Amino acid sequence: MSEFHSSAEQRANDIVKALPYIKRYTGKIVVVKYGGNAMIDEKLKMQVMEDIVLLSTIGVKVVLVHGGGPEINAMMSRLGKTAEFVDGLRVTDKESVDIVQMVLAGKVNKTLVNLLEKEGGKAIGISGMDGRLIEAGIKDEKLGYVGEIKKINPKPVIDLLEKGYIPVISTLGCDRDGNTYNINGDTAAGHIAGALNAERLIMMTDIAGVLRDKNDPSSLIPEITSEQAEQLKKEGIISGGMIPKVDCCFEALEKGVKNVIIMDGTVPHSILIELLTDEGAGTMFSGGKS
Questions:
Q1: Looking at CB atoms within 10 Å, which of 3, 97, 157, 164 has the fewest?
Q2: Is 33 labeled as catalytic in the residue annotation?
Q3: Catalytic pick from 35, 36, 68, 194?
């Protein structure tokens, strides 16, 4: 058999192996949280867009929820403002929330929509302010316009999915008085996925998942229950910025998401590896006790 036919046969076998996974997710909602350092590399960003368009093409209802911390920091620096964080949350005064809105709902959101369309997808960008998707209030006075989610109205997202679009959501919220709030991206993704009863929530980061040794990628913990997570916090294995991310995962499960995973978004085609192969990727979270 020629090398060409051997290679073609292997590709065909790979497609056949993916078939059970395609059947599992066709018609189901998968929410992808994408942001931070995983968005910086342009080549990787295009591969993520390719993965999302491919999934949408085979009938998976993909919702893309994005952040944009590095872009916000860069714009604030250009405008002479210094980013300040308390417990991992951006302190957001009135001027800062205007910058966040401009960058997230404008530049970042529309860039992602454009890239998805370029790859052949049908995408529409919205923010949590559109259709009052994310209704919010002040989380803590000392943080300024950092929002705590009060209510999710999933109808705008459902309407877009039913019409065959990929909703691209920037994580801004609003209240009844017209105030705008900066919402933590992980928290927003968890709440949105819960309101949609999503089959899967994928949290894309720049690390492999939860590691027993943060300096050793091979120490990945493939699955964690809520009870195990509390123990890992006590041991200091889950610490710092990973604590709120893990808490968001379990909160999403409590809100009705079937399956939640944290995985490395800097690995090429990591979404397809996770959803359509036996290999999987990252750390999966389950609500049961061990």
A1: 3
A2: yes
A3: 36
User: Which residue of the set 35, 186, 190, 194 is catalytic?
Assistant: 186
Answer yes or no: 213 catalytic.
Answer: no
Task: Report how far residue 180's alpha carbon sits from residue 128's, in angstroms, rounded to the nearest whole number.
Answer: 10
Instruction: Give the global pTM.
Output: 0.90
2 pLDDT exceeds 60? no
User: Does residue 258 carry a catalytic annotation?
Assistant: no
Residue in 69, 121, 125, 209 annotated catalytic: 69
**Residue 238 near residue 176, CB atoms below 8 Å:** no
- pLDDT number for residue 57: 94
> Is 256 assigned a catalytic role?
no
User: Is 36 annotated in the active site?
Assistant: yes
All domains of the chain in start order, with CATH: 3-286 (3.40.1160.10)
Write a three-state SS string for 8-75.
Answer: HHHHHHHHHHHHHHHHHHCCCEEEEEECHHHHCCHHHHHHHHHHHHHHHHCCCEEEEEECCHHHHHHH
